[in-house]
Structures are given as C-alpha cells and as structure tokens.
Amino acid sequence: MATTVIMPKLGLTMTEGTIEKWLKQEGDRVEKGEPLVEIITEKINFQYESPASGILRKILHHEGETVPVTTPIAIIAEEGETMAEIEMARPEVPVEVSLPVAVQTQSKEPSERILASPIARKMAQEKGIDLSSIKGSGPTGRIIKMDVLKVAEKGVAPPLRKSSEKLIPLKGIRRIIAKRMTESFQNVPHFYLSLEIDMTSCLALHDQLREEVEKRTNLRLTLTDILVKVAASALKDQPIINSRIEGDQIHLIEEINIGVAIALEDGLIVPVVHDADQKSLTEIASTLRGLTQKAKEGKLSLQEVGGGTFTLSNMGMLGIDKFNPIINPPECSILGVGRTVEKPVFHGGEIKVRPMAWFNLSSDHRIVDGATAAQFLNRIKKTVENPPLLLL
Amino acid sequence: MPEITFVESLRMTLKEEMERDPSLMLIGEDIGRYGSIFGVTKGLLEEFGPHRIRSTPISESAIIGSALGAAMTGTRTIAEIMYVDFTTCAMDQIVNQVAKMRYMSGGKAKIPLVIRTQGGGGRGNAAQHSQSLEALFLHIPGLKIVMPSTPYDARGLLKTAIRDDNPVMFIEHKLLYATKGSVPDGEYLIPFGQSDIKRKGKDVTIAAISYMVMKALKAAQRLAGEGIEAEVIDLRSLVPLDLDSILQSVRKTNRVVIVHEGCRRNGIGAEISSLIQEEAFDFLDAPVERVGSLNVPIPYAEPLEKAVIPDEEDIVTAVKKVLYRT
Amino acid sequence: MSIPLDENLCLKLYERMLTIRMFEEKAIELFEHNLIRGNVHPCIGQEAVSAGVCATLRRDDYMLNTHRGHGNCIAKGADLKRMMAELLGKETGYCRGKGGSMHIADFEGGNLGANGIVGGGIPIAVGAGISVQNRGTDQVVVCFFGDGATNQGTFHESLNLAALWKLPVVFICENNQYGLSTPVREAVSIFRISDRAIAYGIPGVSLDGNDVIEVYTKTVEAVERARAGEGPALLDCVTYRFFGHFTGDPGRGINYRSKEEMNQWLDRCPVKQFKEQLFREKIVTEETGKAIEAKVRASIEEAVRFAKESPFPSPEETTQDLFLLK
How many Cβ atoms from other residues are within 10 Å of residue A256's Cβ? Predict the structure, then answer.
C-alpha cells in the first residue's frame, strides 16, 4: 500500500519546514526507519526517517522548498502500485477564532462634562430634573444623591443661584438653530473671503427700476432682490459653489435655490427662492415679499424653507459692516453683505466718495479652495459694479 | 439556647459527622493526642482511633496529596493545615491536583475533601503566621471557599462542607476560636452561597468576612450613634458567592464598603467590587470602597501590627467617605 | 535459559509490550500530522517496566502514573480506543477530552490518573493506600514516577509517611536515567536510587528495567508483601527511552545523549529481547509472532479510526465537570 510522506510536525511551535536535501532519489528503494530527507526548521536541522518501506516513487517538493507542516512531500509505494490519490486524513487545522475588533466609539465630548454619581443621574432622570441645573457637593463637583433629593424637595433651583437670574430653556426654533449651527461650525471647515464692493451702479439700478416694479406688482423692490439675482448668475457660472457634500462625494445641484436669511423675533429663518436663476427681478421680489410675510406670520411651509443651495444674509440694514456668516448646512457657501457706507476711495486716479459695502463669503473648504471662492466673489463684485452684465 | 465557643462548636460538629460517616477521616499535624493547635480535635483520637485521626509528620504536600488520594478512593477526608500560611507548602497539591482532578478526568473523580485551616493576625504571630490568603484560592477554579464568623455559622457550614462531595477550603480565624455564640442542639446545615445579614440598615452596606464581621458590627454600632444606619452582611461563602444579597442591599443603600483582612491589593474586595459595579452601577452614589490590610507583611510589633490590619476606625472612615461626610 | 513464567503470561506480556510500542509510534505519527495538540511523551524503550509491573496487579489495585504514562495505562488494561480519543481531545476519550495525554485516568480500572507535575502523584498514591488500610481490604497501590521525581519533596514526604504507617504502596521508579536532558549522575546525590529506601526503612531493589521477566518477578514479591500488610517498597527499574523527552525534543534526545549510549541500549530493546527469547523457547513462532503483530496493529488502527471519527466536546462542556452537583 502506498504511503504519503508529509512534512512532519517536529515540535510544538513548528508551522513549516524547509527541505534541505533528499537523501534518496526517485526510484530508489527505501526501508522504514532509513534516513530519507533532511529537514530544516527554525530550531533544528533534522534527518527524517522514512515512515515506510518501498520505492520512492515521487518527490512532490524539492530541495530548497519550504512547505507548511503536514504537506505531502513524497510518495512511497511498491513497484506496480498505482499512484492514485492517497486519501489522507486532512489535518485538523485549528480554526483561527477571529476575535471581534473592539469598536472604538468616538464619544462626542460635550464641552462641559457633568459629573454625577450613577444613582444621582438615575434619580434626576426619573424626576425630570436637569442635571446641569444642580451644583454637585461631591468631590470635584460630583452631583450626588443628596443634591438631587434637595432639589426635588424644594422644587426650585438650589439656593446657590441668585434669584435675579433667568433661565431660558433651549426650545423650538432656538433649539434647532443651536443644533444646526453647532453642527455646521464644528463639522464644516469654514474659510472666509471678503471684498469691499462699490455699490454705486447697483444702487443706481435699484433707483431706476424701483418705480416700475411698484407699478407692476404693488411691491417694493429691495437691494436684496438684486443681490439674489447677482448671486444666481454667479452660481450659474460656477456650479461647484452650488453643491453639497454627501458622504465622500460632492453633489452638484442643477437647481439654483437661494435662501435669504430673515431675522424674526425668536430666531433666524431662511426661506428659499427656488430657481432664482430663472426668475426675473420682479419675480424674485414678489417671491421674497411673499415669503417674508409668511415668515412673520409663522406660516412658511417645509417646501418654502427647504432645498436651498446657497444662502444670502444681508446684515446691512442692521448696521453691520463686516461679519463671517456660518454656512447653512449642507450648502457649500453663504454670502454675508454688510451695510453700504459712503467712503473715500480711489476711483479713476482720484479720491472720490463712493458708497461701499463689504461682501463676505464663507465657504466649505472640503468642496472649494480659496482660488475658486475668490473667483466666485470677484464675479459677484464685477456684476454688482456693472449690473448690465446680468443681461448676458 | 446554650452558648459555646467557636472551638467547641467545631469539635462537636466533627464528632457528630465522624459518628455519622464511619469512613470519615481527619489528617493533619498534631491532631491526635495533642488535640490540634487550637484544641479543635481534642478527644477525637481516643474516641475514633489512629486510623481515623491520623496525626502526620510536618509534610504539607503529603498531607494534602494523601487526603486527595484517600478522598478519591472512597474515604471522606478532612485535612488540617495548621496555619493558612503553610498551605503554600502544599500549593501544587491544592492548585494542580485537588482543584483540577475532577475537571481533568472529565468529571470522573469524586473528591469529598475538606481542607480546614486558620489564618489572620492580631496576636503578634508575625509575617509567616498571620496571613489571610483566601484571595489566592478565590482565583483557582475548582475550590469552594467558606469562612464562618460565629459558632453558629461554623457548625452549619462545616456540616455542609463535610457532606459536600467537592473540595472545600474551610478557613477559620485564630481570633474567633475563643468567641462565644448560641448554637442550637438539633441538626442544621447552612448552604453554601448564602450570606447572612447580621445587622439591617439603610444608609450603607458593609460586606465583610470572617473576623472582620465582628469589627464591622462594632463599627456599625459607633456609626449608629452618629445617625448612620449601616447594613452589615456576613458573606460567609466566597465560592459560591451570594452576590444577589449584596446587590439587593446596594440597591437599597446606594453605598458599599467591603471589609477583609487580606491585603487590600487584589484582595477579595477587588473581585466583589468589580461585580457590584458591573451589576448595580446605576445604584451607586459613590465608588465602592475597600478596606483591607496594608500591602506589607504583617509586622511583629504591636503598634505596627495594629496599623496594618484594619480596625473599627478604618471601617468608620470608609463608611463616612462613601457618605461624603469626611 | 528457561523462562520462570507461565506461557500464557509470557504471551500476554509480549502482546502488551508490542501494543505499547506500536501505540507510541502511532501517537508520534499523529503528532507529526498535527492531530495531537500539546506534546506527547513517548515511553518507547520502557515497555518492559509497564508490562512487567502491571501484570502483577488486579483490576481493583490502584495505580498512579506520570506524564510519560501511556504504557502504564495500556498495561493496566485501558481501552485503546478511549485512550486514542483522549489524545485527540475527543468527547469519547477517557477524560472526555478535558485531560489530554498527561492526565489520562480510568477509575474503573484502578487508574487514578497520570500527572503532569513531576512527583505530583506520589502523595496521592499514599492517600489511596490510606483508604485501603482504613477499609481493611487487600488492595495494593502502585505508584510510577521517574528518576527526576526522586529529588522532589513529595517523594520524600510520601515515602516517609507510607513507611511510617505501613501502607500498601509499591513505589516504582522508571529510571530512564534522564530528567529531560539532565542525566541521573547530575541530579541524584547517590549512586543507586534504590538506596533511598534505606532512608525510609523500607526494602529497595535496583533491577534491569528492560528485562520484563525480572521486572515481573521482583514486582510480584513487593506487591504480595504489600498485600499482606507488610508495608511499602521501592523498585528502581533501570531502563532507557529511545525517543526524546517529548515530541518537541529536537533531534530526539540525541543532543544530550551519545550515539554510542543509544546504540548500546537499542541493542537491548526490551521488545526485541523478549521476542527473541520467546522464539528461542518456542513460545512464539514465525507464524504466531506475525499473527500477534497483525492483531496489535489492527487494534491500533481501530483505535485511531474511532478517535478520528469521534466528535470534539461541545462548547457547553467548558463549564461542566468542575463540581459535582447533587
């Protein structure tokens, strides 16, 4: 019966061996116990004896080869025996149990950690007491059971607070703004570009068209309406700004929907002028007046505040010169416009008094670089200073 | 109910069990004529003869090994190691043989063996005769461990230990031998894995073992004078451990102090506090506090020994710490 | 030279020795094929000691064994299938796969287990002797250990205790003259290991461990003496192992032993010697010899097949067999 010679396991830690030298050649007669092959392992140089008597019919691995333990390396059989596959028990390879990789959860570190004993936390939660309203008397300011009990008993803030202080809970729109602005500010890499733009031509345009618009629509035309049209035209030219990040891709959006920031009493709202590039100045004015009214009445629909691709924030009427607006996520950029101020500037070689305003562009550095954003801002400057370009 | 000493309770129990099981054998040093180091086996040689009360040479390995061999071959055996410090001389037999024989044989070996020993300091016996080594055995699977603190508990637990067909480490404390307690006449067994609330309270849980239970009770009395009601749990059994009772108490008091005489570092308190924080995390008002001996050998001089081994004061301090009353 | 033994006994001895030889060779082969984990400590060359000693024992006599104990297990009557299954870690093994090569135990056959600790089983043997003495039966305990173990504390404690109490324990030293790589000359402080018996006041004899007849006749004397209640004895059986210390021993133990020494002992191979003797005495013929070999080979192949086909223990088994649950 034929015998398969395997690379033997010669020690507990041996996993492979190298064939150094065959001491017998194919066709040679070999007796059981006779040295058959020299094997080198990490530890030793070993003469392995033949496990059977017969003819060395086939050498399967040759000198210099390194094979894992239990690999067949030769076949010994008698003259005339077939060399059909000798079924050998497959060695039980211990299954490598893959240990689950410990998932590192990035715990979002809130800026201010509240220290509280587990029971204090549990009790506060059950009683609906906000932990941040309790001052802990334990070591390192730990809130302990006693502190929570005191608060629960008295039903008011602990006596450590001055009675004149007022606490406003973050609710409703304030809460949403807080969340979204935090998200934007923390997660989006902002960079800021500013340009002082000569508003002369733009103001002139406003003057020229104001009456006509009122006659046609019974609505006021504002500077903001013109700026919306300017922004839309610039976005058409530089579609990369009209985009958003989705996972690890930049999604270029076809529609140009410009959100206009409106300040209400309880917070900021940004209704959106959809397809601003396809609207005339009159249409923009009409849309915006309508949205503003609705905003004041709290009647804006989800559609009217959603889908924005760019935001315009005009702080001019609030008397602000310059500011770095926070991007309205998930948009790429936001344009903040300051107030128009008469200033002495160089114009055509002379010092003239011109109406100037600061235009401030905040952009997402993941999507655009300084050069691209600069181009965009310059484009706006060009258009604002030469409004007829809008006709092209 | 009669009051008897810890020693008398043990002796009475051994006698009863030897009468009950004619094969039961005791083996250890000086347990014959001398009656064993603290008198526990006094009179037993005269009553049961030298085959059943086998007094040996000083050969701890042989004592434990032969106790194992006898138990494995049908002779229920109680081996006595004079001081727990000497169990180290028989560590291979305890750790590699006694604890593992049943498991290694695929459940074939039956080992009705009790290893009785005593430990603890406070008498100036110095470093090699004063240790508390239960934490070492707690780490070895295959050994049950019980440590009674009263004559009542000693009797009930010893009966259970003797009748258990598994290896049991029965660890006594030298300062408990002379203590008295009421022990009823009739037969009773205390199951393993059942702790005993020796004092009920609501402000803090004190889990203690062996002689420390006495100190914990004294500390509780003092604390009561300051308006703190401590619940003292006598663990009694380390393997198996009655974790449920501890957790139940912690859920009530929100604070726990574990007291043991073994070194604080890696003493039994380390394992128990870990279990508590795993199972009752949300109920803790403070981290679990452990009271144990300082991490030094037990010194000889009295003031030093006192400073090393925990006392009432240390327990009171620990309780106040978890109550934030320092 | 005629054999002072019964013909049937001779055949039984021969078959036993051949079985041990072939079993060990097969175990080595399985190790080389990565089917046996850990290590195997073959007793090739020491078959005469195993077969000769165990042939003197009854099934109800006890035996303690070493890590090099496959031969002794087989000689005491172990089922090859269950032994092989244990080596492969299968559920059908003697220890349900939980012990492995070094801890094979067959309690029904009096085999109290092999021990992985050198000298670990000697005190246990003493304990078994105590059980016998207390019960008053005429069972005997045989304790196997190597030359290295005679330097362990447990050897001395145990011989002393056994001698002191006149226990029915026969101590057999399988003196293969090496403790791993350390020759006896560099480990044992006296010339003849059997002289150590003098220190304990018991009979001691050194004999040719490769002559199965001498082993048998000398052991019978000691065993009958013990059975008659005359106490323990020490038998120093001088033999040699043809393989390395274990399957991880590089060069099969040639690194620390000379080729000349090996060849001298190979010439005196116990299996070969006895076979030649039996042929000379016409107890075995060419034909019957081949038949015995074929029979043994078949039983080994069957054992391997059984072991390979048996399942591994299931994961639930890990926490079972620790304690006996009533």
Answer: 25
Q: Select the residue from A123, A125, A145 to test the B interface by mutation, using most B Cβ atoms within 10 A.
A: A145
Shortest distance between the Cα of A153 and any Cα of chain B, in A, equals 18
What pLDDT shows up at residue C249?
Answer: 75
Sign of CA dihedral C185, C186, C187, C189: positive
Three-state SS string over chain B comes to: CCEEEHHHHHHHHHHHHHHHCCCCEEEEECCCCCCCCCCCCCCHHHHHCCCCEEEECCCHHHHHHHHHHHHHCCCCEEEEECCHHHHHHHHHHHHHHHCCHHHHCCCCCCCCEEEEEEECCCCCCCHHHCCCCHHHHHCCCCCEEECCCCHHHHHHHHHHHHHCCCCEEEEEECCCCCCEEECCCCCCCCCCCCCEEEECCCCEEEEECCHHHHHHHHHHHHHHHCCCCEEEEECCEEECCCHHHHHHHHHHHCCEEEEEEEECCCCHHHHHHHHHHHHCHHHCCCCCEEEEECCCCCCCCHHHHHHHCCCHHHHHHHHHHHCCCC
pLDDT in tens, C294-316: 999 999 999 999 999 999 998 88
**Chain B residue with the nearest C-alpha to that of A143:** B285
Instruction: Give chain A's contact residues with B (Cβ, < 8 Å).
Output: 117-122, 137-139, 144-146
Residue segments in chain B with a per-residue pLDDT below the cut of 70: none
| Residue in A closest to B283 by C-alpha | A119
Question: What is the biggest distance separating any 2 CA atoms in chain C, rounded to whole angstroms?
Answer: 59
A188-391: CATH, from 3.30.559.10, 3.50.50.60, 3.30.420.40, 3.40.50.620? 3.30.559.10
Inform me whether the pLDDT recorded for C252 exceeds 70: yes
pLDDT of res. A172: 65
* CA distance to partner chain C, nearest, from residue A11 (Å): 4
Across the interface, whether the CB atoms of A12 and C38 are under 8 A apart is answered yes
Structural domain spans, chain B: 3-182, 196-322
pLDDT band at C256 (very low <50, low <70, confident <90, very high): confident
Beta carbons of C40 and C101 less than 8 angstroms apart: yes
Q: Is A18 exposed, middle or buried, given 0-12, 13-18 or 19+ CB atoms closer than 10 A?
A: middle
The whole-angstrom separation of Cα C82 and Cα C109 is 13
CATH number assigned to the domain covering A110-172 = 4.10.320.10
- What architecture is domain B196-322? 3-Layer(aba) Sandwich (3.40)
- pLDDT of A88 strictly over 50: no
Quick one: average pLDDT of C19-27? Answer: 97
Q: Which residue from C35, C38, C248 is facing A91, i.e. has the nearest CB?
A: C35
Interface pTM, i.e. ipTM: 0.84
Residues on chain A touching B285 (C-beta within 8 angstroms): 117-120, 144-145
Smallest Cα distance from B292 to chain A, Å: 23
- Asked if C250 and A91 come within 8 Å (Cβ–Cβ), the reply is no
Share of chain A above pLDDT 70, in %: 87
Region(s) of chain A under CATH 2.40.50.100: 3-105
As annotated, the residues of chain A forming the CATH 3.30.559.10 domain(s) are 188-391
* Interface touch B285/A117, C-beta < 8 Å: yes
Instruction: Say which residues have a Cβ less than 8 Å from residue C16's Cβ, sequence separation at least 6.
Output: C47, C50, C51, C54, C55, C74, C75
Distance CA C147, CA C238 (A): 9
Cβ pair B324:A146 closer than 8 A:
yes
pLDDT for the residue A98: 43
Least CB–CB distance from B283: residue in A118, A138, A146 = A118
Reported as a pLDDT band with limits 50, 70 and 90, residue A248 is: confident
In the residue annotation, B139 being an active-site residue is answered as no
